[in-house]
Amino acid sequence: MKKIIFGLMVLCSTIFAGQVNIAVAANVSYAIDELVKEFNKTNPDTKIQVTLGSSGKFVTQIENGAPFDIFMSADMKFPQSLYEKRLAKNVPVIYAQGSLAMLSSKKLDFSKGINVIKDSSISKIAVANPKTAPYGTAAMEAIKNAGLEEATKDKFVYAESISQAVTYATTAADIGFIAKSSMYDEKMVQYKENVNWVSVDPKLYTPIDQGIVIIDHSNSLVGIISDKMKNEEIKAFYDFILGKEAKKIFEDFGYLVK
């Protein structure tokens, strides 16, 4: 039995040592490279393995044992659910506050604000799946609060994540609701504010507080071993995301930080 445990410890040290696995909400995809780069300036031996996707799907994966160490969600609800199920080590903490924008490859009359989506020239509106993507939930809330639900009900094209909504907005749809942070990516410079995109009035939707938690693997033997070896590195990246260097990067990508 001792040999088995020792062998498992050696295997875990080979697989996990020096690597932190993070599940990252798709809207952060535009900032995450800069965040990791900045973190590695002071932690050069720690490899950050990033997996991007929708927050709702990450919760399901974590509940089923996915080996993520940190979860950076697009809202507070999903990480809170993990904490309540004792799958997170800490109460969710806000690391940034996101904003909605509307994007189109066409030149539209954005002086109309969100009302532009009811124009006859708009037949397809890209929105991230509101069941799994918090930015999709915020978009549908804004549409409802603007009184445009009935006028646009047959126009929606649903994306799996907010990053896919960006792709749809510039290809398969006439316009799309996206994370404002995507417009600060260097690949998006061709799209001009008030010509191809505009911010959505923040009064139309609940503030998008994005939460971070450290995942608890203590219920598994592998988790216990790997957590002991990686605990300092996990905590270092968690603290970095809440620190001043990361806040500056989030601000550069259009987020609000406290």
From TrEMBL:
Residues 1-25 form the signal peptide. The keyword Signal applies. GO terms for molecular function: metal ion binding; molybdate ion binding. One of its GO terms (biological process) is molybdate ion transport. Molybdate binds at S55, I162. InterPro entries: AvModA-like_subst-bd, ModA, ModA/WtpA. Keywords: Metal-binding, Molybdenum, Signal. CDD domains: PBP2_AvModA. Belongs to the bacterial solute-binding protein ModA family. This is Molybdenum ABC transporter ModABC, periplasmic molybdate-binding protein. It comes from Arcobacter suis CECT 7833. The gene is modA.
